[in-house]
Amino acid sequence: MAGRKQGSGSTVTDVIVPAARGHYERLVSLAADVRDDADDSVHQMRVSARRLRSLLGTYRDAFPPDATVTARSELRWLGSVLGKARDAEVLAARFCELIDAQPADLVVGSVHQRLVGTQEDLYRAAHADAVDEFARPRYAALCALLEEVTSGREAAPVDLTLRSGLDKAYRQLRKAAKKVRALRHEDGADLGPALHRVRKRAKKLRYAAEAVAAAEPSAADLGSAAKALQSMLGDHQDGVLARDWIIDAVAQARIDDEDTFTYGLLYAAEEARAARTTSELPRLVKAIKKAHRTLDLRT
Question: For the chain, which has fewer Cβ within 10 Å, the N-terminal or C-terminal residue?
Fold first, then answer.
């Protein structure tokens, strides 16, 4: 039986509310790093926003109801603002790595500028927009709202347990994974939306499990298993975006009468990578099922 930290609280009020408060405080502190364009700061602030939004949803009854609905909506907005810069940052690095992996004599034309250079330009513009948002009333209002929501003044219902939140998130993930499994047997089915749903459910389960694990160590394996699935599907989603950008770059290269061979090479490499990652889905879902089964939390 997995042990528990001696003296740790094991209620939603003791564990989840302080975790939410910590994400809020980290989010606010990271704004300065984003303004300075510190390395990985956009990503870290976006993650803090996502973690907080997720906990406010999974354990919503532990927080002020009306304010929490608004806070989650505004955190989604903040995530989208930061997401534009983060997506460009990720794609620039991905394209750079992808191009560097090809034989030098097969990289022809303006491939690097059209792919890497374009994303770097988009990052700079999106980063500037995000910094501008920090100086506007909407961001200040969100911070004030999060200060209220995470204050701990709302009493959590006695029947709201750490286990109940994890179980709900787990059931949602299993349902989404079963949908993907069913679609695999349908000719021509578009798995993209279903895989994206699995990724969101894995993220929700991961963030809840990681918060719970601070007091209940048996949840750590569940968090790690959910993280592995989320990471795999995140890579898959980045690949979808990369292939779309490659297709757009091909169209522009043709207009400019440039050789498009290298783009085809890169597209094929991305397709192969996608096939490798998605083949891992059943194994990763099975690992989550095993970790959930061995949870040692009081109901």
Answer: N
